[in-house]
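Worked Example 4.2. Read the sequence first, then its structure tokens.
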Amino acid sequence: MAGSVPRVALVTGASAGFGAAIARRLLSEGYTVIGAARRLDRLQELHAELGERFSPMVMDVTDPASVEQGYTWIRERFSGLDVLVNNAGLALGVAPAHEAKMADWERMIATNVLGLTRLVHCVLPDMVKRNQGHIINIGSTAGNHPYPGGNVYGATKAFVRQLSLNLRADLWGTRVRVTNIEPGLCGGTEFSLVRLGDQAHAKAVYEGTDPLTADDIADAVAWVATRPARVNINTLELMPVSQAFAGMKIHRES
């Protein structure tokens, strides 16, 4: 993008894992990146690493006021937002639905569904007005393929998938793009630690596997974002080679 006006990307959940890797990769593609997350210390570390084209922003996507204030700040400082990467999200627990904690379900819905939707609602009118922009949502294979213990987490990611498709339907006639990226098993992040609550259980999830990495997801984000303006990648599902589709389970009485 030499000689052109730097494009601006907002990445949520940027303090670690996918978000930090996506911020690094988009910077390498020439973007100015606004990294939003709750943990200021992590954002400051990234700012020290990445330099002035990385702007840290404290934002809690579950707090409507925080999202509105953050987007107001962006509008005051930048001519427009070219890319929104809705990466902030989490999974909590793997208990079957009848044993799961309601508080865990509510937190996943608040972050993965409402938080993502708030950001979309903020940025979309300006993107349509400018007739350009790209919303990249980070979904999951859990939104497509059920598994025991996936219950509400999988349901939130199914929401992300369907919202992404419905946005494309509403945006027909504009040049605003929407992509849902759906990773499978991915290691080297805090995802399983947050979900399971301790390092030993989190490590066991990846034993004997060669999972995707945060850099693989960042590579996918960069690829869809840099396609020609006429191209919209609707959905991109990726799994490690060590993961595949399981057969239907049958319970047999003993």
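Now turn to a second chain, presented in exactly the same format:
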Amino acid sequence: MLHHLSFGVTDLARSSRFYDAVLSALGYVQVWADDTAVGYGLCDREDLFAIKRRGAGARAPGEGFHLAFSAPSRDAVDAFHRAAVLHGGTDNGQPGLRADYGPHYYAAFVLDPDGYRIEAVINRCA
């Protein structure tokens, strides 16, 4: 359904360091960059997620919005959370099973440096 999504950020250098770390834990890489934005995905020039410098006008949506990144394993969810906290993110839910979402829903929740609510999740057996 979705082709890509982008966040407006206040400090592109800070945010790219954060997203380089957290998304690499999930197997995503920087697929393009310029002076105003950085794109992440799996293949060259094919971004699934981008951050765009918007300066002081950038605002994260409030309660009710979050972005969940697909993780290849529970270990990757754990690594995502560790990387987020080490690179300027704020814990918003330690890695673990979320029985309310299903018997195999393993996720971690953080706030990025601009306050965006993001998650890494794997929802399958084993």
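Notes for the reader: The chain has one domain: 5-56+65-123. DSSP finds two helices and eight strands in the chain.
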